[in-house]
Each structure stands twice: as structure tokens, then as C-alpha cells.
Protein: DUF3500 domain-containing protein
Organism: Chitinophaga eiseniae
Amino acid sequence: MHRCFLLLIMVILLPAVVPAQSMASSATHFIRLLSPEQQSQALFPFDTSERYHFSYIPRDDRKGIAVKALNTAQREALMALLGTALSVATVKKVNDIMQLELILKDLEHRAANDTYRDPGKYYVTIFGIPGANTTWGWRFEGHHVAFNFSADKNELVAATPAFLGSNPAVVPEGVDKGKEILREETVRGFTLIQALTTAEREKALIATAAPAEIITGASRQAMIAHPAGIHYSEMSAASRQLLLALISVYVHRYTKLFADDMLKEIQQAGLDQLSFAWAGSTERIPGKPYYYRIQGPTLIIEYDNTQNNANHAHTVVRDLKRDFGGDVLLEHYRDAHR
């Protein structure tokens, strides 16, 4: 592991409940540590179209300031900023996914000077001016990691789109053999599909072949017009509990305050409106692709493991009303600046 990235795998232990004011303070601290040239790379107005950019594939044209361009103090400040919105466990997942780039580089037998796989090619971008009385947002993005946050005054309005992926899903060889970063998302999904009764599973299974990729992709509007699968209201009490436990895995990627708000919205929209759909193998067999989706009035959660001989997992959380902060927040920002 490159010594210069050791700080990135340190988990910042922060309180479970952190208001948006703390996030703004952390963002301001991070900005102040940047040089003027770095600030010119990292800072954008809130109403720029760049704020809607969402990509989780390897690329060299991302906007923002790259992790590899940060010094030690700046990296520490970035990790602290992530910790104001994400749970301790999620910050660790983010760092683990970044380090997978080094494992992929070895598995793909790339040359030492090849930079296609690089744990430093993750970028932070800040939109607007962080503050207790402002509308602003920020993004942390790279291969298999993409989080987008929007805040208004002291309220964290949105923390989606939110993507975590893992390639390989299970490390096949080397000192990290068996490492599985998205294990909980995988195991709980299989626990649910396998616990369904025969009748319930027939409703949940929407296709024998899994789609090649998450269906919402990197679209600006994450809408799947017709929810499919089995509805919460059609499940037994035991199956309902397993579905809620699976949702909890994704919601609690965030700090407790925001996770609680998301859960409240899901409940207010009606648990009976939730649906669970599965495609592909219902048995966890190496090389057998599978996919699942949870959809409700307020969110879509997708998981797929189909690529690279079904050893390449993608997960995403999309807020159907407030992705990227939603249109209402943008109008609020523009009204304040007229």
C-alpha cells in the first residue's frame, strides 16, 4: 500500500448525530487549507450544471481537486468532512473501495507507472459557499464511490445520489483474499430472497437473468416507472422484518440524524408502498449473476453483481424527490441571489 495514502484508511470517530452546521464548518476548514490554485479547482457556484454530474466509472476528466493532490492536513480535513455526513462504517467502506484500485492494478497486471487504477483519483468538489445561512453542496466521487450532498442553512437536505461499488466483490487472491467490502448488502439480500415463501418468491422474482447494470445508471432523474416484485403488504411478518433490515443497511450509511430522517420519510410515505424485486440466481453461487431492487415513493435502492463473472458489485441509493438537492432547493438558491 502506498504510504501517502495511509491516512485515507484511518476511520474518523465522530458523534453519531452531527448537524449540517458541523458539515459546513468542516467544509470551510477544508477550503481554508487549500491553496488559491487548489481552490480554483475545487470550488464551483451552486447553480452550475456540474453539480448534476454523477459518474462511478474510472475516468480522468472529473472536476474538483484530487485526493492525490492533497497534503496530509488536507486529507485529514477531507476525511473529517466525509465523517460529518457518513457513518464510521461507511467512511471505512469508502477507504477500502479506494484501496481496491491497488488490488485491481495487481490483478490486471498493470505496469508500475500505469495510473488507470489509482487510489488518489478521487475528487472533492464544493458548490456554493458553506455556511449556517447559505445554500450549498459538495461531492466526493471516483471509481465506485459517489456521494452528493446538499444543505440549506443548518439542514442537510439531500445525500444522494449515493453509490458504492466493489471490484472485485470478493478479492480472489493475494494477502487480501476473501475481503468483501459490500458483504452486508450481499448477505442480507440473499437472506431475504431465500426466506420468502414459495408464493412470495414467485412474486419477487422478476427475471431469471439479471440486468447487466443497475437500471437507474447515472441518470439525472432516477425513475423506474413501474415498481415490480412483491409489495410489503404481500409479505409475511418475518419477510417484512428482513426487508426493513435490508433497507436499514443502506439508510445507515449516513450519520444517525440523516438516517432517521430518511426512515421517517419512508414510513410516512407508507411501508405498504415498498416493493422488493429480484432477478438472476437466488442462490449465491460463484459466477452466477444476481440483482435486487427496493422501490418506494421516496427512494430506489439497487444492487447488482453481474460483471466480471459475477464478482463486481454495484449499489446505489436514489432519492426520488431530492437527488442533488431537488429542484425546490435550486429555486430557493436562485431566489436568494436575485
In short: Residues 3-160 form one domain. The two ends are 50 Å apart (CA to CA).
